[in-house]
Amino acid sequence: MPTSMQSSCHNRLLAALSPPDFALLQPDLTTVPLRLGAVLIKAHAPIPRVYFVEDGILSGIALAADGGQIELALIGREGMIGTPVLLGTDRTPHEGRVQANGYAWCMHADALRAALRSSPTLHALLLRYVQALTIQIGCTALANSLYRLPQRLARWLLMCHDRTEGDELPTTHQFLSLMLGVNRPGLTAAVSVFERSGMIRRQRGIITIRDRAALLAAAGASYGAPEAEYARLIAGPAESQA
Length: 242
Prior knowledge:
The chain has 242 residues and is of the alpha+beta class. It has helices at 12-16, 19-25, 109-118, 120-146, 149-162, 173-180, 184-196, 212-219, 225-233; strands at 30-34, 39-41, 49-63, 69-75, 80-81, 95-108, 168-170, 200-203, 206-209.
C-alpha cells in the first residue's frame, strides 16, 4: 500500500495520520477479511495483532465469569481494535468479535509498539482515539442504566448505520438481545414498533434503516456524545464524521 494511497483509506484513523506517521505503519499493514463471529481479541490472552477496520463492524464485549456478556463498544471504519497495546499492556478481560463482515488493515502488535516508540505524534493521535472509545463505553453504560429499551435500540441502530455503507444492517434478534442485554421477547416487541412506525424494515438476518431522522428522535439524548467527541479529537479528512 503506497503512501500515496493513504487518501483512499476508508479507515479514518489511518486517513488522519500525518504522511510520516502513515509511512511508519505502511510496511507492516496487510489486509485481512473480517468474518462474522470471528474472535480477534481473546479475553485474558496476549494480543498478537491489532486491526484498523476498513469495512465491517467489530464489537468490544464484556464477559462475566458465569457466562453473561454484553456489548461495550462498536468499532467500525472510524477506529481500531487492540487498544490495550496503545496503553502499554498486552491483554484485556474483554473480547473483540466481528459483528458484520468486511475487512481490515492488520499489523503485529510488536510492530505497532515499535512505531509508537518512534513517533510521539502517532501515539498521541491513537491515544485520542482511546479517549473517544472510552467516552463511547461510558455512554453505553449510561444508556443501559438510564434509558428505556426503545431509546437504546435506536441508539444502537444509529451507531451501526454510522459504520455501514448503505442502509442494510446484518443482524438477528438473538444477537441484538445479547448485545443490548435484554430478553428476546422484549426486543422483538420494540423492533416491531419501530417497523410499524416506518423507521426500519426487517427481513431475515437484515434490518434496513428507512427513516434515520425518526431514529434520531427516538434515541434522544442517548446518542451523539461519543460521535461529537470523536469529531473533536481526531483530525484529518473524517473530522466531521464518526
